[in-house]
Design a protein that fits this description.
Number of domains: 1
Order of helices and strands: HHHEHHEHHEEEHHEEEHHEEHH
CATH architecture: Alpha/alpha barrel
Radius of gyration: 26 Å
Number of helices: 13
Strand content: 5-15%
Shape: globular
Oligomer: single chain
Number of strands: 10
CATH class: Mainly Alpha
Length: 393
């Protein structure tokens, strides 16, 4: 008994000495042995270190003159912009819509082409700004009379046009652009944003048809309508609205959508009662809308690795045709077949893997339809603005 007590005393003294002079890392290595001598289970192994954070920079960068590849703009203008300034959706009955007009105006600013900007903005004012507010009718059909059959707006189109006007006002010091941008941004904030909900600020895709009052599964959101690089720029002209809250809620909704068993977010989502699921009446697909989500994240320089992870996995084999995905089953439901879509994958490779995008991002691909060519232009401008070391020109 005396020997045992003596041994316990010696062990206690040694333990006290170790706590004082042994470095913390070494103490951790001794803990399993000490626990075992007391008849206790050893503590579990240390958890793996979290993945390295992405090196993103969300600082505001003016768009003016950001396009460093003028040949892209010349080809885009020749193929998709009419003499009057109408952006033509070549794969969709040659229609025009507010989204396309906004993209065209943004590209004109990035290319420092004021003459084309004014043509596009002039056609937009004359033909789409026909509502009783400062927002735009979303669709114009050349083969129909009247050309506008639906007076509803598309919120992403309004945001894109307002953003382009902000950038144009700064590049060319034109007050009229700034005034017009403010009018549109104020109506976006007043009529399409639900700022105080349990899920934060919600951006409705349009004034009509998507709220809880309009649909049993409402509100409905489309995360590709959250044009993340636009929000800090709209704050310049409409500071009374909390645009930062839209950025945060968009990131939160994306994370929540991915945690609901859907590795990729669907195009249209019900957020009724705070539960996120594919909206009724829409195909439950990650498709032509949602492909813009990672592009806007990268263009804004925001998010965490987990926001990009599933998009990067989806795009990892960009040598193949990228799949459209059924978010319920995880199975392929189609494919993005034109090469412009792969520009999103190339941008993701730059952001997530930190490598060169490859020369193909800077290769002009004539003969494409409006939408893949537009995605290609956006990916190239985003890369040249924020990830210039990744682009091989």
């Amino acid at each position: 008994m005396i020997v045992l007590r003596g041994l316990q005393l010696v062990l206690a003294v040694v333990a006290m000495w170790a706590a004082m002079v042994v470095p913390p890392s070494a103490q951790q290595q001794l803990q399993p042995f000490a626990a075992a001598t007391q008849g206790q289970a050893a503590p579990p192994a240390a958890k793996a270190q979290p993945a390295k954070e992405l090196e993103l920079n969300a600082r505001q960068i003016p768009l003016g003159g950001a396009l460093k590849s003028p040949r892209f703009w010349q080809v885009y203008k020749a193929r998709f912009i009419s003499v009057q300034g109408r952006i033509i959706d070549t794969a969709n009955g040659m229609i025009s819509h507010s989204e396309g007009q906004g993209y065209g105006m943004l590209f004109a600013v990035a290319a420092n082409d004021r003459e084309t900007f004014d043509r596009i903005w002039g056609w937009t004012r004359a033909n789409l700004m026909v509502r009783n507010d400062e927002l735009m009718a979303w669709r114009w059909e050349p083969a129909q009379r009247p050309a506008i059959a639906d007076m509803n707006n598309a919120t992403d189109g309004d945001i894109l046009v307002a953003w382009a006007l902000v950038e144009a006002s700064e590049l060319w010091s034109e007050l009229s652009y700034r005034i017009a941008a403010r009018r549109i941004a104020v109506d976006v904030g007043r009529k399409t944003v639900l700022f105080k909900t349990k899920m934060g600020a919600l951006l409705l895709p349009a004034i009509s048809g998507f709220s809880a009052q309009d649909r049993p599964d409402g509100p409905i959101v489309n995360l590709s309508y959250y044009v993340f690089p636009a929000f800090p720029r709209l704050k310049i002209v409409a500071p009374e609205y909390d645009w930062n809250s839209l950025t945060q809620s968009g990131l939160d909704l994306l994370k929540a959508a991915q945690s609901e068993g859907q590795k990729l977010p669907g195009d249209w989502l019900s957020v009724k009662d705070g539960k996120i699921r594919p909206a009724d009446g829409f195909a439950p697909h990650f498709s032509y809308n949602a492909i813009r989500i990672p592009l806007y994240l990268a263009w804004a320089g925001i998010g965490e690795r987990e926001h990009y992870r599933e998009f990067f996995k989806w795009a990892a084999n960009r040598s193949a045709i990228l799949p459209i995905v059924d978010v319920k089953s995880g199975r392929e439901a189609g494919a993005f077949r034109e090469p412009g879509y792969s520009a999103v994958a190339q941008l993701l490779e730059c952001v997530v893997a930190g490598g060169k995008t490859g020369a193909e991002l800077a290769v002009v691909r004539d003969g494409q339809n409006y939408y893949p060519a537009t995605l290609h232009m956006m990916a190239l401008i985003a890369a040249q603005m924020r990830y210039a070391t990744c682009v091989r020109l």
